[in-house]
Amino acid sequence: MTVCVDPMEINFDEELNEEQLFAVKHIEGPMLVLAGAGSGKTRTVTYRISYLLSLGVPESQILGLTFTNKAAEEMKDRVTKLTKRHVWISTFHRLGVRILRESIDLLGLSKHFSIYDEEDSDKVLKSCLKDLGLEDKRYDSKAFKSAISREKNNMSSYETIDPSGDKDLLDHLSKVWKLYDERLRSFNAVDFDDLIYLPVKLFMENAAILERYQERFQFLLVDEYQDTNNAQYQLIKLLAERHKNIFVVGDPDQAIYSWRGATMRHILSFEEDFPGAKVVRIEENYRSYETILEAANALILQNSHRYDKRLKGVRGKGEPIQLFTADHEREEASFVADMLKKLHRSEDKSYGEMAVFYRTNFQSRALEDEFLSRAIPYTIVGGLSFYQRREIKDLIAYLKMAASDHDFIAFSRTINLPKRGIGQATLDKLKSFAELNQVSILESCHRALQGEDSSLKLSPKQISGIREYLDFILKLRETAKTRSMEDLVGAAIHEGRYLEHLREERETYDDRKENLDALLGKAIEWDEMHEAGTLEHFLEELTLKSSLDETSSEEEKVKLMTLHNSKGLEFSHVFIIGLEEDLLPHANSRESDDELEEERRLLYVGMTRAKDTLYLTHALYRYLFGSLRTQRASRFIREIPKMYLTRGGASYSYERTNQVEEIEEAYLEDLKPGDSVFHKDFGVGIVQESYESTLGLTYKVLFAKENRPKSLVAKYAKLKKL
């Protein structure tokens, strides 16, 4: 390749370390970059793109792929700042949308398809189970959805399903998947798995289309390669097959997503898949102090399925990791709150630079109770996304109807917002008429108004409601054609009586209206950034957003999140709670060495998020699986050398005076008159009073099925607060 004059005047030799520079200056042929946590992975990828541009590679021939919108935007911004050029850097799903918008007609769908998120696709699947007579407790929709997702990720079809697995499920999976697929197509919709599955299918069945994309993207860069599932791997391999200029960055020690189909086999077999591949290790960590890194290194060395790699700190030794042993989870939460307050008040640290990680979501309850009582500001990361809030989903559904005649899920969501008298039976008949006559759901409405559907007798209220709805959708469509996105979203909020619907719930109206105003703000931003943006593209932007894209370390609140959600983030002060057997490692990993290794990687990921201080905690007693249990400290604690730890809290050898009953009683002392509770024999009841009896703390509870209150001793009753 002919070297051109560098138009950007970047001094690559000075701005990169030796390993990064080697990776950046590798031009043609496959390369695997093993980049440890905090080693400047994003910097390496962005500088390689800049280096390619400096050599005269056209920006249109470069494609960068990553997993989150946040990572893609960060990478894009860095490249633009370095080069003043715009390179296509995208998530896998956005790339899939782009390919399908151009060529999905070859698979028999319209290019104006809707994208169904988890909630929307689940509604479709449940309707399929109902129509097939499988809507009972034996056939959980989530199990079918998970099985279909797994098969799509493995590039199977309903004719070639993997025969291993739950036989009862497999007996029905093919027909469920077939109907689910047909129904999606009749709504002109795809689900999230289709955004990878269908492009790969398209490439496999159309050599000319594949060749066009191979020529378009001659230099491929993939971030977080260890997180690819089989469909993503196939997509990458097909795109890179012709020119083989594939540059992947990843870390097998951070492979923690096998539960959603990712396999670290792809990164471990990269040299076999791409003969002649160069491998470089980037091990200098610029994030964490050495003590944290050495402890993490010692932990991950216990795993066998990995490349040999060791993080090396450049910031100095730092403080020992604090290991705290609590009596129970309330004391654990109290310790975390104490430390957060101390860091904030005594050391003037920002709450926004502090985070607490846990293995499963239920562990946040005790923390939230403690933080609320002590006025510690917090936010839960990965909880309900802004884009999953009811009012936002409602407005997006209205916008989808402005873009598509066929989107039945959006139609069924909006037709009664506000109420228009269209019940489920009428909806079912409108849908059946559309399917039978192969017309859209809106055309079905038009024909129903004209009396063409003899099975559908509409009341005057229904006729008026459907007419009003169709007129409103038509108005939105006209606005979409000629006006800004701000005008369109504003019309959807203010001109369709939707606010009238929200006002029916007075206590939540103000919050929901604020969220709608925020969506309007998003539309204004969109207009500023996309002069020629279409409604279709705006909907893609909204649909492909996730709650993790909304995470900001600048917000002055402590971040609470699962260890899985911590990946890719960093904080000055990190707490990891619940280091106990059956929690971390999780009980589900008992029977599998591979799953145990993934649990170890999960802790490794959490530890390497910490920049300055790291706290690990475990409890001797915890409510788990419905009862108070004695907990054993996690084996992972023993795998961290003592020289890196300082201990505090209850002693392991201390002869305890607190009995399980006393601890159990402590959990129930906060029950007060008026609280709703559940008892395994008596059901739901209301606490009327509490008092001390000869047997200890006692509650008088009136149960729904009883005429008179019952007196129950707290330590035996195991009442559950609702």
Classified by CATH, the class of the largest domain is: Alpha Beta
- State the domain count: 5
Query: SS-based structural class?
Result: alpha/beta
Q: Strand share of the residues?
A: 15-25%
So, CATH architecture of the largest domain?
A: 3-Layer(aba) Sandwich
Helix content: 40-55%
Please compute the radius of gyration using only Cα atoms: 28 Å
* Largest beta-sheet characterization: 8 strands, mixed
Q: Work out the number of β strands.
A: 23
In CATH, the topology of the largest domain is named Rossmann fold
The global form is globular
Protein name: DNA 3'-5' helicase
Binding site for ATP: 35-42
Domain UvrD-like helicase ATP-binding: 14-289
Family: Belongs to the helicase family. UvrD subfamily.
Brief characterization of the structure:
This protein is of the alpha/beta class and 722 residues long. It contains 30 helices and 23 strands. The strands form five sheets. Strands 11, 12, 13, 14, 15, 16, 17 and 18 form an eight-stranded mixed sheet that branches.
Please, could you describe this protein's structure?
- The protein has 722 residues and is of the alpha/beta class.
- The protein folds into five domains: 12-99 and 197-282, Rossmann fold (3-Layer(aba) Sandwich), CATH 3.40.50; 114-187, Arc Repressor Mutant, subunit A (Orthogonal Bundle), CATH 1.10.10; 312-385 and 549-647, Rossmann fold; 391-507, PCRA, domain 4, CATH 1.10.486.10; 675-721.
- The protein is built from 30 helices and 23 strands.
- The strands form five sheets. Strands 11, 12, 13, 14, 15, 16, 17 and 18 form an eight-stranded mixed sheet that branches. The protein has a six-stranded parallel sheet with strand order 3-2-6-7-1-8, sandwiched between helices. The chain has a five-stranded antiparallel sheet with strand order 22-21-20-19-23.
- α14 links the parallel β9 (284-285) and β10 (312-313).
- α15 packs across α16 (364-373), α17 crosses α18 and α22 runs antiparallel to α24 (506-529).
- It is globular and about 80 Å long.
- The termini are far apart.
